[in-house]
Amino acid sequence: MLSLKLAARNIRKDMKSFGPFLIACLTMFVMLFVAASIAFSPSVAKLPFAGAVVGQLMILALVVLAIFGAMILIYSYRFLQLQRSREFGLYDILGFGKEKIALVSFYELLMIYLITLVFGSVIGVAFSKFSFLIFVNIIGGKTFNLVINPVSYLVVAAIFLVFFLLLLIIGCFIIWKSSSLDLLRESSKGEKEPKSNIIFALLGIVLLAVGYYMAVSVENPVKALSQFFIAVILVIFGTYFFYVSFTVWYLKRKKKRASYHQPNNFITTSSMLYRMKANAVGLANITILLSMAIVTMVVTVGIFFGTERSLAKQYPMEGQAVAYNMSKEALANKIDSVSNEKQIPIEDLKVIETQSNLIVGTQTKDKTLAVEKWNANANQINFSIVSRDDLVKLGNSVPELTNQQLLVYTISGKEAAFNQLDWYGKNYQVDRLKTLKNYPLQSTFMDTILIVSNDDKTMKEMSQAYNETIDGSKLLQTIALFEIAPTKADTFGQALTKNTSDLSMYSRTEVLKSAKSVIAGFVFIGFILGISFILGAALIIYYKQLSEGSQDKRSFKILQEVGLSKTEVQKTIKSQVRMLFFLPIVVSIIHFGFAYIMISKIIEAFGITDTVLVAWVSVGTILIIAILYYLIYKLTSRVYYKIVER
Hints:
The protein is of the alpha+beta class. 68% of the residues lie in helices and 11% in strands.
């Protein structure tokens, strides 16, 4: 009973120590509850097109957040234990015994667990409904009411029970292995000067260099997806080694400069050097969290905003019918017939013939691109072919061509580096098509080159040459583009494709809605994870300010007593805080700069090749996160100043 009373009194009287840990618990509980409430809600199944996919994605987000939450809670609880080690030491000296001290810790964790469940659930329900409202608006849905499944409470409560059992084990282990004297000294003892391990410093540089090289050298979206996680792991370990070893080496180099003996430089450099071992891990954590927030937000926001632009290129008009084994005239007649029969008007009908997704092996020599039979070891390019007349029909300005001439247009916007094309033994002179409009570009994981032939005959000859190298054949596509009222597109499509297996009808509006319902799931997860990473960084920054303030308070008090003015103390504090503030955000931006090519390729894997859009999304995201980071640091730095200044 005494242990229970002590635990309740400790939480009530020492909220200064327990407050930050309780905030961390509530923050992670709410983030996990949002993911769980949406993942298990029956409301998600009512969402248009992809409710099941969204639920599965949120379960994945729940797993990621659970791992991340465990790290944050262990970090914050370790800080709480450090702050209260003197109290535990006094308990032990007074004969309370380590068993009862551990029992007090158990009751404290139990009470905080119950407080977290109650208040976290209330806040979580409100935040879940608000987040779901945002999500439904993104996908254009009409189901705004989020029904909270009781399973959500049970899942998050179980996850947190595991967290708190882990914290109890960690706390009991620290109490059990420490003597009374160790506990008394734990919160006030200074750190030894860390050693700058040249091997770790070099290892950090090598890991970062390899990770950066993998990121900048990636050539296609498929490779980017497979290499991304390897590069991330290398950069994470490289970041830790960089902070732990390289920063210590740099600070020791500063000690050898003449400017080191100036009061401000001497105090700042010495203080940071003696605490850099602990600082390094915290700074590395902040850097990694900021980097993860930037990458997550850029990828998800880039995919979301790029989807509409990409689909506008794939579907230049509202209606699009695709047929195989059907001539252009036959398809046009069928569309006109259905339009007249159903009294559904269509406008601006254009019918073309094209061949898409011709994946070939290539070799380049003397500005001649030689196409060969595809094999796994060859360089691969994806070609599409269309005739000049059909492009002109779509409103493009295309020069006259001979039988031996072709025009090429690279979908990604890169300049084709060849002047001749050897297409399975037949040589063509190649020129560039400067602009392209109204052509239905198909989404693909590979960069695509559009070939413009002089007429339909040449196009079919090139297609036949390709078909002879593969099993089966690629059928020519006959594509009809036309404008139709979006509300009539479904009725028209059903009538058009009735009793026909090789004819399909697409509505740009419906395709966009379907795509957004899936993409919005990624965006929402990016939103939740991004907020979690930023909040995690904020919590670590706050704990750093508390711990550093407590450690520096005594040092600055002594310096003032021996003659250092308050103005000089404030100037020194600001110099140190500025360095600790700028380093993580600068390193995060450097990480992202090297990862930019790989990230743009990952976005390209979703069919988005708008490089200008990706660049603007990247700049905007970095700017927003940098501003949030600055505001967090300004708020938390006040805690440091209040502790340190006398």
